[in-house]
Amino acid sequence: MSEHNKRIIERYIEAYNLFDIEGMLRLMHEQVLFRNYSNGVMDTETRGMQQFGELAAKSAKMFSSRCQTITNYSAIADQAEVQIDYEAILATDLPNGLKSGDKIQLKGKSVFEIQEGKILVIEDYS
């Protein structure tokens, strides 16, 4: 993985952790594709910067704090795979029974594809 692409990913994670939606969007390709997989099932997909921004803003309201920590990088073909430790504190109650103030801790990975110096694809797996 190039140092340039690694830095783009690190800047995205930093913006995510700071709830900096505009900072996240500045790193996105206009046609960004985002997918979230939970337990092997895709539960969320957005296409384009507008849909991604709307999802990011909605998601930010769900947490009082959140932190993704990169634990490992690897490059596979034209993609970068990043192992992530995730920790967050909920700001709202969720339909699955989790309550505001509850702490979430997950391990997962994110797969990024970068084109023209912008993030074209993000796939999150947990």
Automatic annotation (TrEMBL):
Database matches in Gene3D superfamilies: 3.10.450.50
Transmembrane domains' residue ranges: none
Coiled coil (UniProt feature): none
InterPro entries: NTF2-like_dom_sf, SnoaL-like
UniProt domain SnoaL-like: residue ranges: 9-120
Protein's UniProt name: Nuclear transport factor 2 family protein
